[in-house]
Amino acid sequence: MRSPVELRGKPASRGIFAGPVTRIAGEAAARVYSGSAAGERAALDAAIADAIAELTVLSEKIGGEGADMLAFQIAMLEDEALKAPAYSAIESAVVADKAWSAALAVEIAGYEASEDEYFRARAADLRDLRDRVLKHLSGTAGPSGSGGMILAGEDVPPTLFLETDWSRGGAIALTSGSASSHVAMLARARGVPMVVGLGAFELNGHDEAIVDGEGGILILSPERATVEMWKVRAAGLAIEQAREREFLHRPAVTADGVKVEVLVNVAGVEELDHIDIETCDGIGLMRTEFLFRDGAPLPDEDEQFAAYKRFLEWAKGKPVTIRTLDIGGDKPIRGLTPDGETNPFLGLRGVRLMLARRDVFRTQLRALARAAPYGQLKVMLPMVTIPVELTEAGEEFVDAADALKDEGIACGMPPLGIMVEVPAVAIVPEMFASAAFFSIGSNDLTQYVTASSRDSSAVAALNDPGNPAVIRLITRVARFGRENGIPVSLCGDMAGDPAHIGSLLKAGLRSLSVSPAGLARVKAAIANLRVGS
Amino acid sequence: MTHDVGLHARPSVKLTKLAKGYASEIEIAAAPEGPWIDAKSIVKVMALKAKRDTIMHVRARGADACSAVTALLALIEHDFDDDHANAVAG
Asked: For residues A150, A156, A158 and A161, what is the CA-based torsion angle, rounded to 10 degrees?
């Protein structure tokens, strides 16, 4: 038994699990050439048949949305057009696994290069089915998915998640990965604890581990006493989560009867499949950055319009606040964001960049104006610092809508509001009284007020949204909004943190926008509070 | 084609499954001049990357060509709705 190792990553799905840890099988071993093209061809056919059989069994077992994804993988594996390039490579004496990998690499690259997010996401399915066949080819396919253990590795293929029997418990710990991946969403829906972004670690010799999906912690080879302590916490958490779930389908009301709006923050279309609109008051922040990918062509007006319209239709008449493109600084897109800024968080980002790149801004505003008739759309500008930015963006929006009308294209003019995240706005909100609404971006506001970076662990203690200076600014903005009939909400991480919700309500806020996974918890926390109005 | 996301994974699975139910050679295209692609191959159907509001074209050659074209068009027109596709195909 090795000595304990504690690693920190990013939380992806809440929950605690302690138990055996196993490495997610990486690349399959290389296959040994059978000696003939016929032999390789037969081996590939057999491996594909085995993979189809496995997926069929799995599909019958799980049903629902997961089964649809498997039906797609099965249909691909059954298609001669997928295998044809592999067969022809095999004829020129290539080993079956190499032939298969090369054939799939072409397909995968095709999907990855797509400008459409839906098609790009299918690349993961193709990698998944490629690897399944490869494991059968090399004979390394083993029983998996027994559940009851921590799966650790670089990434979890969606099918491995689906075939795992999570009713026996278990967790996921990834060296890389993202909290917004498909698997992370499945994990949250299924209540499987998950941590991502742990960085590379060695599993050799570590047999047991603890995953804390809330703190983003992985402890390898924990001491017995540590395990006992975490097991008590896990039991407490399970009770707490069950209690919170009771609040999910109810409106959010404080213990003394004050109603609070709770909306969701979303960053991609696929998230919509995992949220029930009945459990929230609309979308408080829709990020549009997912439409713009580094290295891919910029999304055209039609593509953006289709995406915005989909969110509006999903919301069934509830408000949808879409934020105009908020890139720059740490989120570069070649050809769009400036190169070599020494202090990117204080550079050309958000609305500053859009006003410098009117062509890109105009396309987005046209798409938004066209989507407006499909629901209750609100449009929000990020990083506003001085009133003239709001004026100029507003003029640009009116021009875009006028041009659409001249072209005879149906459109609407949604209310235009601003993010309050730059201290210059939070200190003198009265200068921005022409905004239709304020949405406080507490993450950036905290970073700017406390002069501490959001992503530096060394100054994490300073980067506290509960800092009295931040709270005072929030109170000021909320009061100004209330006195002048300007709706104010808050869409940063602190809205999802029960430790801060009390002070936000006390500051006068009655509208919070949180990550979908946090809805039940936030509503439960609100129900527990009194604001004494 | 009015399906929300265009000819994506789920609709493509349905379309190719329906096409495979016919003996005829069936081809689809996203433009009248082609390129025409095999409606029974999901790899090729997906590669079309047909978006919402694309006008889809269907052609078939064989004994059951007529009913094949009718069924495929009905599936596309009715948003890849399961019940409708079954009613026509069944």
From this structure: -10
How do residues A379-391 score in pLDDT, each as one tens digit?
Answer: 999 999 999 999 9
Catalytic positions of A: 182, 491
Which helix (DSSP H) or strand (DSSP E) does residue A262 occupy? Answer: strand A261-266
Check if A450 contacts B (Cβ < 8 Å).
no
The SS3 assignment for A211 reads strand
> What is the rounded CA–CA span in Å between residue A286 and residue A283?
7
| CATH architecture of the domain covering A5-25+143-243 | 3-Layer(bba) Sandwich (3.50)
3-class DSSP state of A420 = strand
3-state SS string for A229-241: HHHHHHHHHHHHH
Domains and CATH numbers, chain B: 9-89 (3.30.1340.10)
CB A308 within 8 Å of CB A322: yes
Inter-chain residue contact B42 with A125, CB threshold 8 Å: no
User: Rounded to two decimals, what is the model's pTM?
Assistant: 0.68
Tell me which residues of chain B, numbers 53 to 82, contact chain A at a CB-CB cutoff of 8 Å. none
The verdict on a CB contact (< 8 Å) between A122 and B9 is yes
Residues 113-142 of chain A with CB under 8 A from chain B are: 114, 116, 118-119, 122, 125
Test A114 with B51 for CB contact under 8 angstroms. no
Number of alpha helices (DSSP H) and beta strands (DSSP E) in chain A: 17, 16
Helices B82-89/B65-77 angle, 10° precision: 170
Checking ipTM against 0.90, whether it exceeds it is: no
Chain segment A300-356, per-residue pLDDT in tens: 999 999 999 999 999 999 999 999 999 876 667 778 888 878 888 899 999 999 999
pLDDT of A143 = 46
With pLDDT > 70 as the criterion, what percentage of chain B qualifies?
87
Residues of chain A with pLDDT below 70 are 1, 25-29, 63-65, 140-145, 180, 182, 329-331, 455-457, 533
Architecture of domain A249-527: Alpha-Beta Barrel (3.20)
Rounded CA-CA distance A6/A11 in Å is 15
List Cβ neighbours of A325 (8 Å cut-off, separation of 6 or more).
A288, A289, A292, A353, A354, A360, A361, A364
Q: Which residue of A has its CA nearest to B17?
A: A75
CATH class of A37-138: mainly alpha
Contact list in A for residue B46 (CB cut-off 8 A) is 119, 122
Is B47 in the A-facing interface, judged by CB distances under 8 Å? yes
Beta strands across the sheet bearing B37-38: B37-38, B25-29, B57-61
Chain A contact set for B48 (CB, 8 A): none
Residue B82 has pLDDT above 60, yes or no: no
β-sheet with A171-174: strand ranges across: A5-8, A217-220, A208-212, A16-23, A150-153, A171-174, A194-196, A10-13
Q: Exposed, middle or buried: residue A308 (CB in 10 Å: 0-12, 13-18, 19+)?
A: buried
* Minimal CA separation from A226 to chain B, in Å: 46
